[in-house]
């Protein structure tokens, strides 16, 4: 897990950092692992021949990586995304397994992939989610309804990065915790960071194995962990 | 032991004409003449040409799949198709035999499910060696990126007092003996005697079932602000 926390940064700094990180790492692999990517792309194409048409991926492996390198990530708010999804053809034709009806719903992978692969045709960063579906420590916007969250959405897999500008105001944080029934007495160590020299800050999380899955085109997380442990298997 | 040259650097062709020593594991040995050798440094194998008229026949029989060998000879541009360079073997040594009857990986396509059961050997396949070389490059690139930007890298704890996303249902950490654990008045195990004193309930377990990672995210803020530094943590923890 990669989890940068950046003091004195806002959400825009956070998005720039995350987009920069993803592009830097993917570019590094494209430049240093040409043989490996060729091999894995062919392997994947062979494997996909066995699958029915609708299960095959939209893009071959290297094209998918270039798609993330060559495009500026499209940035828009959750509210704007909901409007697009509500009026989208698959929503109107009932093609989504989870139809988009109202503002406030959490997005499913099918919605995220629609935005990336069909609508914008580039990686997407959604911001300013409803506070109900995000964690208490994300900074509350002036509308009192949304928080300064961001999710980065990639082709094929949906969310790859999740982060936010954090709530640095002690009183707002405390009332958000009360609202969400978080026992404040256990969280004093956390609140101390807001009592003593609080400042604007932001951060995000990137699942390392998720990134390896994306870049190698493998589908099972157990195949990108050197010695995977799962129930009944910890021999090594 | 002679200085070893990695196959990755030989395949680039810049050492043509030099006498080098390579070490690796036999992928295939065909026509009693051509060894395909892999040492894990690259996806590509190095072709080693053996003079079977001069070589000890008993030694050639030991060139089975996955035997470890050392070969010294001159690197030349290859006459054959499928490779740009090859090594004309002058000295061949078997370092470690591999019983072909018992070696689980045959030179054919195995399913990923089967390979998962022999995860300690799957690094020797093309697919997994490629995946894990890429994994390495991703880890290096992440560190490089943050280091260049002036971030500091903090090793965060793996064991925490928080039971997030129900992970505690599968994993419990205790220093108490499973048999003869200290009991309280009611006869229940007294976890107050434990090294890790249990939290009664985690706020994150109640509210963040969807994304337990947010717990970790929240945690590092402490360090970030306390130290006044930008920090990032290790991939894979």
The CATH first-level class of the largest domain in chain B comes to Mainly Beta
Q: Identify the overall geometry of chain B.
A: elongated
Give the end-to-end Cα distance of chain A, rounded to a whole number of Å.
Answer: 22 Å
The CATH class designation of chain A is Alpha Beta
Strands of chain B, total number: 7
Distance between the termini of chain B: 38 Å
At the fold tier of CATH, the topology name of the largest domain in chain B is OB fold (Dihydrolipoamide Acetyltransferase, E2P)
Give start-end ranges of low-pLDDT stretches of chain B. 198-237
What is the largest interface, and how many residues per chain? Answer: A-B, 64 and 60 residues
Report the major sheet of chain A.
6 strands, mixed
Specify the number of helices of chain B.
6
**Strand order of the biggest β-sheet of chain B:** 1-2-3-5-4
Please name the CATH architecture of chain A. 2-Layer Sandwich
User: What is Rg of chain B?
Assistant: 27 Å
Topology:
The complex is a heterodimer of chains A (236) and B (237).
Chain A (H helix, E strand, L loop, with lengths): L4 E3 L3 H22 L1 H16 L11 H10 L3 E4 H9 L2 H4 L16 H12 L3 E7 L15 E9 L3 E8 L4 H10 L8 H8 L5 E6 L1 H9 L20
Parallel strand pairs in A: 2-3
Antiparallel strand pairs in A: 1-6, 3-4, 4-5, 5-6
Helix pairs in contact in A: 1-3
Chain B lengths: L6 H5 L7 E12 L3 E5 L7 E4 L7 H5 L6 E10 L7 E12 L15 H6 L8 H23 L3 E3 L48 H5 L5 H15 L3 E3 L4
Parallel strand pairs in B: 3-5, 6-7
Antiparallel strand pairs in B: 1-2, 1-4, 2-3, 4-5
């Amino acid at each position: 897990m990669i989890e940068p926390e950046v003091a004195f940064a806002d959400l825009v700094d956070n998005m720039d950092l995350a987009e920069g990180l993803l592009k830097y790492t993917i570019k590094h692999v494209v430049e240093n692992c040409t043989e490996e990517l060729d091999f894995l792309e062919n392997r994947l194409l062979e494997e996909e021949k066995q699958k029915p048409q609708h299960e095959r991926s939209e893009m071959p492996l290297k094209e998918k990586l270039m798609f993330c390198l060559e495009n500026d990530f499209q940035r828009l708010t959750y509210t704007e995304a909901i409007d697009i999804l509500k009026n989208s053809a698959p929503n109107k034709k009932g093609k989504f397994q989870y139809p988009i009806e109202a503002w406030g719903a959490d997005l499913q992978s099918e919605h995220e992939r629609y935005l990336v692969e069909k609508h914008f045709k580039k990686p997407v960063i959604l911001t300013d989610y409803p506070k109900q579906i995000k964690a208490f420590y994300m900074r509350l916007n002036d509308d009192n309804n949304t928080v300064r969250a961001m999710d980065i959405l990639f082709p094929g897999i949906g969310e790859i990065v999740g982060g936010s500008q954090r709530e640095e105001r002690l009183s707002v944080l405390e009332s958000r915790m009360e609202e969400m029934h978080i026992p404040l007495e256990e969280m004093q160590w956390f609140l101390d960071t807001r009592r003593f020299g609080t400042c604007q800050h932001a951060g995000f999380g990137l699942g390392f194995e998720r990134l390896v899955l994306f870049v190698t085109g493998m589908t099972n997380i157990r195949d990108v962990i050197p010695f995977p442990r799962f129930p009944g298997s910890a021999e090594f | 032991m002679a200085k070893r040259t990695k196959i990755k650097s030989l395949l680039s062709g810049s050492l043509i004409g030099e006498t080098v020593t390579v070490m690796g594991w036999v992928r295939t040995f065909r026509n009693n003449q051509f060894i395909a050798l892999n040492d894990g440094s690259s996806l590509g194998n190095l072709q080693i040409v053996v003079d079977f008229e001069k070589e000890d026949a008993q030694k050639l029989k030991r060139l089975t799949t996955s035997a470890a060998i050392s070969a010294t000879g001159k690197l030349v541009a290859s006459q054959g198709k499928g490779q740009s360079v090859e090594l004309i073997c002058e000295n061949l040594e078997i370092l470690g035999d591999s019983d072909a009857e018992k070696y689980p990986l045959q030179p054919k396509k195995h399913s990923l499910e089967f390979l998962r059961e022999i995860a300690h050997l799957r690094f020797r396949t093309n697919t997994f060696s490629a995946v894990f070389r890429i994994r390495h490059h991703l880890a290096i690139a992440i560190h490089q990126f943050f280091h260049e930007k002036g971030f500091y890298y903090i090793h965060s704890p793996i064991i925490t007092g928080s039971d997030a996303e129900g992970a505690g249902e599968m994993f419990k950490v205790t220093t108490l003996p499973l048999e003869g654990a200290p009991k309280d008045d009611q006869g229940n195990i007294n976890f107050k005697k434990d090294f890790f004193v249990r939290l009664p309930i985690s706020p994150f377990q109640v509210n963040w079932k969807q994304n337990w990672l947010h717990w970790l995210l929240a945690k590092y803020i402490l360090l970030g602000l306390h130290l006044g530094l930008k920090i990032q943590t290790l991939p894979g923890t």
